[in-house]
Write a structure and sequence with these properties.
The chain is mainly alpha-helical and about 475 residues long. It has 2 domains: about 60 residues, no CATH class; about 400 residues, Orthogonal Bundle (Cytochrome p450), CATH 1.10.630.10. About 55% of the residues lie in helices and about 5% in strands. The protein contains 20 helices and 9 strands. The strands form 3 sheets. A 5-stranded mixed sheet has the order 1-2-3-9-6, sandwiched between helices. Helix 6 runs antiparallel to helix 7, helix 6 runs parallel beside helix 20 and helix 7 packs antiparallel against helix 14. The longest helix is centred in the N-terminal third of the chain and has 33 residues. The radius of gyration is 24 Å and the shape is globular. Bound molecules: protoporphyrin IX containing FE. The site of protoporphyrin IX containing FE has 23 residues, from helix 14 and helix 20.
Length: about 475
């Protein structure tokens, strides 16, 4: 009897497996027919293209593999993941433009891994909800507000520079951890108005949970079984995620509660109303994202605590991980390229003064550092903080004149685009001059998109550039960065 049950289960599984694989392969064939300019990555039944990602393949590393596949097979590819589920991997500027400009936006599966933490905040929300939220949050990034945030950037990056003193003259070390703590301090103060003092308390539960959750999101992103949630739910990572989420949501909830009760106080309400007044939003007083969210209403309703939490959590994630890797790779490339470092320092001396490391940095001064701007752009080319973004085709998505079935995942491989030798000759060479006005004007606007492009571009890009610049000025004002083991 038992044997019969087991055989029946196995048979049902086999039928499911074969029909899924056959369906997916037919879908892939249809995509090939509709998109003749796309090439296919050779795939095996069931395994899809997995073998191309074997660890012993050269060049090593997942992003180098992505770029290698595009160099071998073509700019725009039809790929097949586990069980032959077809997806598109695009890198040519014109196709990327069509995907990012599509009228109905849907996001690919990779955003599902963020939802347990971020729920439907600005990164993951769609349609009307996204449009309303984007509209109300945009004033928080007006340049007058950013100017106010500079006080936080100055203070926190000075603390970061002091923390590095322990390593002076002691050889190579990994700067990433220090920068993570610094950017966490900066974003929590500007988004929530809360000093979490991560640099002084690197082992606090909140800081550890942010790092844990970020790690789990990235692990899921590159898992071969990522389409099948059951594998994650039965893993140890799911348990760790549960613990981290309880800490993260608990913390944001308590900050929201605290700010709300402060607002009930008459005096705070008066100050807040003044801040909200049209001229004051863009005026002198700093208003955190959280204060803004607590005081706005959409279609006559104020936002619920859950609404506010998803946006605050979204900014905590998007606003620290990205700038951390950007600043870390800036430090790395500046250390490896002493001529670039010399040029940066002489520009800082010229624009800010000899003692630039101790200067109080202002918005207008940072805008004048043109070579620094070009250097950061080159870092974001060679090591983009967001190396892949994903979309899912909706009914009306048209690529190269052909309508694509709804529900096909499309990966826009920013890393491969930025390291394409046809667009950026000798792509491994670090050369900020690629971003002088003359060279920039020769390229298709969608060939370099570290902050994405179109309606869903990065809302925090000006904030990010200012933060990165301020931190690098402080860093180079105190230390000479020496080349390390690549
Ligand atoms: C070097 C730093 C940064 C880079 C390279 C970067 C890159 C990006 C990219 C590529 C996207 C598009 C994502 C997608 O379409 O799926 C994005 C969206 C977003 N970024 Fe950034 N980002 C950076 C810093 C920041 C900062 C500092 C903040 C907040 C303070 C932020 C907040 C956001 C938000 C909320 C979105 C979603 C926007 C929307 O869909 O309306 N980012 N970012």
């Amino acid at each position: 009897m038992m044997l019969l049950v087991l055989c029946s289960i196995f048979l049902i599984f086999l039928i499911w497996l074969v029909s899924t694989v056959v369906n997916n392969m037919l879908l892939a064939r249809e995509l090939r027919r509709r998109l003749p300019n796309f090439r296919s990555i050779p795939a095996l039944p069931v395994l899809g293209v997995i073998l191309h990602y074997r660890r012993d393949r050269t060049p090593p590393g997942i992003f180098a593999t992505f770029s290698g596949l595009h160099q071998r097979f073509g700019s725009d590819l039809i790929s097949q993941s586990f069980l032959n589920l077809p997806n598109l991997q695009v890198t040519s500027a014109s196709v990327v433009e069509q995907v990012l400009q599509a009228k109905t936006i849907r996001k690919s599966i990779i955003y599902e891994f963020m939802k347990p933490w971020l729920n439907e905040g600005l990164i993951t929300s769609l349609g009307k909800k996204w449009a309303q939220r984007r509209k109300v949050v945009t004033p928080a990034f007006h340049f007058k507000i950013l100017e106010e945030f500079l006080a936080i950037f100055n203070e926190r990056s000075e603390a970061f520079v002091i923390k590095l003193q322990n390593h002076l003259g002691k050889g190579d070390f990994d700067i990433y951890e220090y920068i993570t703590l610094c950017t966490l301090d900066i974003i929590s103060e500007s988004a929530m108005g809360v000093k979490i003092n991560a640099q002084d308390n690197p082992n606090s539960s909140y800081v550890k949970s942010v790092k844990e959750m970020s790690r789990i999101i990235f692990l899921r992103l590159f898992s071969i079984t990522r389409e099948y949630k059951i594998f994650f739910l039965t893993s140890k990572a799911a348990q760790r995620q549960k613990v981290a989420l309880s800490e993260l949501h608990g913390f944001t909830d308590s900050v929201i509660r605290e700010r709300k009760s402060q607002l009930k106080n008459d005096h705070s309400q008066k100050v807040m109303q003044e801040k909200l007044n049209e001229t004051d939003i863009y005026g002198k007083r700093k208003m955190t994202l959280l204060e803004l969210l607590l005081n706005i209403s959409i279609e006559g309703h104020s936002l619920s605590d859950a609404d506010i939490r998803e946006e605050v959590d979204t900014f905590m994630f998007a606003g620290h991980d990205t700038t951390t890797s950007c600043i870390s790779f800036c430090a790395y490339h500046i250390a490896q390229n002493s001529l670039v470092q010399d040029k940066l320092v002489s520009e800082m001396v010229q624009v800010i003064g000899k003692d630039f490391g101790n200067a109080v940095l202002k918005y207008s001064v940072l805008q004048e550092l043109k070579y620094l701007d070009m250097t950061i752009k080159e870092v974001l080319r060679i090591h983009p903080s967001v190396p892949i973004i994903g979309r899912k085709s909706a009914d009306d998505m048209v690529i190269d004149g052909a309508t694509i079935h709804a529900g096909v995942d499309i990966a826009i491989l920013i890393y491969a685009m930025h390291n394409n030798p046809e667009v950026f000759p000798n792509p491994k060479k670090f050369d900020p001059e690629r971003f002088n006005e003359e060279n920039s004007s020769k390229r298709h606007p969608y060939s370099y998109i570290p902050f994405s492009a179109g309606a869903r571009n990065c809302i925090g890009q000006k904030y990010a550039m200012l933060e990165v610049k301020a931190t690098l000025v402080k860093l180079l004002g105190s230390y000479r960065l020496l080349p390390c083991d690549p």
